[in-house]
Amino acid sequence: MALVCLTVGAFAEGAPVATDGRVVGDESRTRFVLDLSGEVDLSAFTLAEPYRVVIDLPEIDFRLPSGAGSVGRGLVSDWRYGQFAAGRSRIVLDVTGPVKIDKAFVLPAVENQPARMVLDLLKTTTAAFDEELRKSQLARDTANEPVQKADQLPPPDRSKREKPLIVIDAGHGGVDAGTVSASGVREKDIVLAFAKKLQERLEQTGKVAVLLTRTDDTFLPLGTRVQFGRDHAADLFLSIHADSEHEGSVRGATVYTLSDKASDREAAALAAKENASDLIAGLDLQKEADDVTDILVDLTRRETRNFSAAFANGLVGDLASATRMIKNPRRSAGFQVLRAHDVPSVLVEIGYLSNDQDEKLLTSDEWRSRVADAVTQAVMRFFGQKYAYLGK
User: Fold this and answer.
1) What is the predicted pLDDT for the residue at 2?
2) How many CA atoms lie within 13 A of 373 on its CB side?
3) CA 334, 339, 342, 346: dihedral to nearest 10 degrees?
4) Which of 59, 213, 254, 289 is 20–30 Å from 112 (CA)?
5) Domain end: 143, 171, 206, which one?
């Protein structure tokens, strides 16, 4: 990873505003420009497989024109942006091949011109790119500190808990918008709204506790989402998404559990898409740890998968009474976000943003309430069977 890191001045209180972004140049030299309301610190680095350039910034209020980033030029095919973590924003440029970061700087505002962040890219060879990555291994390790694998941590302690804890994970977020409908509705917004509604309904029962992995438009790596559930010793982990497909004719909800072999081709394809979330955000995943094969971990994993399957089977029935389901709504595949070996975990695709009828439902508060009630019913029955103290 070629790393450029420099301080170019502090910004005034409040997040700087980005008002426009553009790409100029050709296939030999390309410049990316972002108009800002003030000067910022930045760091920029490259990643391979696929080739990308990542720009890390402090929190930015992106007020860019509609469609910004969908079209590139020269060495940049397209680009995306968003909040990456609390207080941090990220821009990811998809590039056409190996590139070198020639310059990265911010120009102060002058007269009627706003402050501008400028990134210059040069075309380079694969060999030169790879050599630069090798030399900057330490920088890559620092910029992408891996989340400690869940299987390497001590088991959570639920013995003193008065209520079961459900962790609700709203998928995508920040720089990763997820599916975007033809009308511009973003999956990350839809699933967060549903997650909050579900939290409200569950907490109204007074019998369970609820936490959200994210409460705003923040990107979370898949490993961080899994670790959040383990750190809080969750009794159930629900990951919420909204699907898409090219034809636009498929609609309805689906319930997924983890399996080493996908139940069907569609489930395998969806898992591959959802597992690519970290790549979309510009994360370097090459340091992911190996699986732990300890027999106790394996036994716990089997028990957890049984609990996950039991909850998923019940959830399908409750959802079917509240909303349309796809054909064969109970499916499984290798979703990374469901891999906590000791937390029962289920992924729910609440509908298809690629379908006009589903989009209308997904954006309806009345529909969200109805479906949240159905999920709540499934959760209460699951814990009523699993924990005697739920009835207190």
Assistant:
1) 43
2) 8
3) -60
4) 59
5) 143
pLDDT for the residue numbered 302: 86
Q: 3-state DSSP call for residue 21?
A: strand
Kindly report the length of the chain. Answer: 392
Q: What is the distance between the terminal CA atoms of the chain, rounded to a whole angstrom? A: 56
- The domain boundary, picked from 143, 158, 182, lies at 143
Give the pLDDT score at 247. Answer: 77
Low-confidence ranges of the chain (pLDDT < 50): 1-12, 142-153, 289-290, 388-392
Q: Are residues 104 and 24 in the same domain?
A: yes
Range of the domain at 99: 4-143
Question: Cβ distance 117 to 42 under 8 Å?
Answer: yes
| pLDDT of res. 299 | 74
Residues 92 and 282: beta-carbon distance below 8 Å: yes
> How many domains, the chain?
2
Kindly report the CATH number assigned to the domain that includes residue 85: 2.60.40.3500
Check residue 285 and give its pLDDT.
61
Both 131 and 158 in one domain: the answer is: no
- The two structure tokens encoding residue 333: 């595949």
Identity of the residue numbered 215: T
